[in-house]
Amino acid sequence: MTETTVVHLLRHGEVYNPAGVLYGRLPGYHLSDNGRAMAEMVAKSIAGRDITEIWSSPMERAQETAAPCAEALGGIEVTLDERLQEATNVFEGKKFAGWVFRDPRNFWHIRDPRRPSWGEAYVDVVARMKSVIDSARAAVRGHEVLLVSHQMPIWIIRLAAENRRLWHDPRRRQCALASLTSFTFEGERLVTVGYTEPAAVLLKGNPLPGS
Question: One MF term in GO for this entry (predicted)?
Fold first, then answer.
């Protein structure tokens, strides 16, 4: 019989960000009250699953999302992994608005949306996300694992897994706050990609792509 292994990619919950900046990898950004409620809802939704390990991006918002899940699963220790990090972005710390695309000083950064030229290349994101998924899958073979990451890395590895073009419109990503993108493997073979939103009732929209 072929072993079934499931890798769940969980996007972190809503972040307290009153200034509306693109925070990317900047430190000091934590879950809002609503984000903490999202994390609790996800924890309740996975409490009965066969998740034996939890790995997380080292960013505060990811660790805070992972914490109630770890508790709900019997106090599993959360492993931090840099490969689950947010993608780099030259616009970190700035408000993300239409002026970014009209300011001549930014033209060099937005010259090639297919790479993209403003941050980490999509192919590099795919490589590190595939690496961490393969490592986690090997660690829990025959069980399930929860990886807490960020919107852009999760969406990009899903596009790659589904053999779709990596270049895309960030506004059309199917990766809401506190959503689960689940890869099911039979042995070494990926057989299905699923998507759920355990905290959908708490979603207010997310105007900052790639967070």
Answer: phosphatase activity
Radius of gyration for the chain, computed over Cα atoms and rounded to the nearest angstrom: 17
> 57-113: per-residue pLDDT in tens?
999 999 999 999 999 999 999 999 999 999 998 888 888 665 566 777 777 677 788
Q: How many CB atoms lie within 10 A of CB 110?
A: 15
CATH of the domain at 40: 3.40.50.1240
- The CA distance from 62 to 148, in Å, is 6
Distances from the Cα of 21 to the Cα of 10, 62, 77, 78, 199, angstroms? 22, 18, 31, 28, 23
Total number of domains constituting the chain: 1
Q: Is the pTM of this model over 0.85?
A: yes
High-pLDDT (> 70) share of the chain, %: 93
Query: How many Å separate Cα 86 from the centre of its chain?
Result: 8
The Cα–Cα gap between 80 and 58 comes to 6
Query: Residue 52 in contact with residue 6, Cβ under 8 Å?
Result: no
- Answer yes or no: is 210 within a domain: no
pLDDT tens-digit readout, 2-12: 799 999 999 99
Residue 211 inside a domain? The answer is no
Report, as an integer, the average pLDDT of 27-42: 97
- Any idea which residue has 């914490």 for tokens? 67
The dihedral of CA 25, 26, 28, 30: what is its sign?
A: negative
- Domain contains 208: no
